[in-house]
Fold this sequence. Notes:
Layout lengths: L1 H28 L1 H18 L6 E4 L6 E14 L7 H12 L3 H8 L7 E5 L3 H10 L4 E10 L7 H4 L2 E4 L2 E6 L2 H5 L1 H5 L4 E6 L2 H15 L4 E8 L4 E8 L18 H4 L9 H10 L8 E4 L2 E4 L2 E4 L7 E5 H7 L2 H11 L1 H10 L19 H4 L5 H7 L9 H12 L3 E3 L11 E4 L3 H18 L10 E10 L6 E14 L6 E8 L12 H15 L16
Parallel strand pairs: 1-7
Antiparallel strand pairs: 1-2, 2-3, 2-4, 5-6, 8-9, 8-18, 10-13, 11-12, 14-15, 16-17, 17-18
Amino acid sequence: xxxxxxxLTLIFGILFGLLGLNxxxxxxxxxxxxxxxxxxxxxxxxxxxxxxxxxxxxxRYENRVNVASNKDRPVIYASPKEVADIQKTAEALSPxxxxxxxxxxxxxxxxxxxxxMVAEKVTPDQLDAIQNLNLKGIYQDQKQYRxxxxxxxxxxxxxxxxxxxxxxNPKGLxxxxxxxxxxxxxxxxxxxxxxxxxQPQAEEIISKLVTDHKAExxxxxxxxPRTGKILAIAAYPNFNPNNYxxxxxxxxxxxxxxxxxxxxSVFKPLTMAAGIDAGLITPSSTYTDYGRVTINGKxxxxxxxxxxxxxxxxxxxxxxSINTGAVFVMQKIGRKIFYDYLKLFGLGxxxxxxxxxxxxxxxxxxxxxxxxDVDYATAAYGQGTSVTPLQxxxxxxxxxxxxxxxxxxxxxxxxxxxxxxxxSEDTAKKVVEMMRSAVTKGGVAVIPxxxxxxxxxxxxxxxxxxxxxxxxxxxxxxxxxxxASNPKFVILIKLEKPQAGKELAALTVVPAFRELATSVLxxxxxxxxxxxxxxxxxx
Length: 539
């Protein structure tokens, strides 16, 4: 019994001795090694993991598709604290990663650092080759990155994430990614109002339009007028947010909300609405058009240099886009009423859309102390004031929804919201009818079995160097709605500086509208409001 006890005591003594030795080795001799290893791993987890909510488009059936999500890709990183021989490690990695030895040395030449990214987007062959080297302080892992599966589709609106000077963690730098960064960083998903079917169609049409007409750029917006819901917002040129570093910064700008332009004759329905709603004109009111009018010593002419004579109705002013007719209305209602209605339509102020860095547009030409009557006269037909495309389509939605200004939105959870009433329901209907007549008389935007309402604009572009306007460059806009009896959508198409067919918007953006509107009507399964095609020719 005594011998057995002594034997067991000896065995336990040896075991405890070995355990103590191992603890000494781990805690004292290799303390720094394991500490560095854990520190490197913790920092790697921080740097490699992106926890961010997903962004999705939807469709009329509420089917979602992710357009911004998180995806893993293999990476190689170093823990400089653990790298035994920087020179040899760099020389071993260089031929595998196709990176200069000196660059690799510089990356690892910080003995205080626990983490440094060596290579991203590593191939399986490279991973195998590096693993076989068994290099101390060199690790493999998966890094999460933001992935946009539809690439260029909706790029300016979606934006992207990246690093900036304020944080070491990726954050939204443009678009929805920026506006809703806090929610997304908190791993909350965002469902957008953007339609997964209509957005790519809009992208394709504006891309082709810009290319075919050798234009500088272009925009398409589709808005649901009764809610303010944005169904599509496309721009060209665009970019691929997966590779945003390959593009100039100007391509990141959302021109629908961040750039302004003088809209031209597409503005005239707003002038007419002010006059009708104020009770000072009707669609059938007449004036005598002499083809020109002189104000403050400056002569305004009609775009076609024609004079339409006596008995020219306000409806005809919209049908033929007569500049002097818009001036007549503005003079009839007066400067104050005209300006007040422009403010009611939301001009000169942000729409409140949930996208970052929206600009105001400008009515400063009318607001300055020495503003002249001619400034108001030119504003009546859309020159001398500046707007964003979103401001213009939102103003037209007022007509489409019976007189209400809605706040446009892209996050399905943030709307709808009524800002205010702008004009009466009766005024809105009368303006829509005037625009329907313009489309019917013009013929270009007509869609069989549907009443279409809309207005073109061929606008001059200011010359900020020499003053005045550029002689040979224009901006084409068409804003249309369908069906005119109860509009389900409003579409804006804008083309900047077309060089082919640049004279008239009717030859560029209007055919594109007809193509897109036909597709939207079919997609939304909208019932015809003019089932007899011949009716289009009877008004």
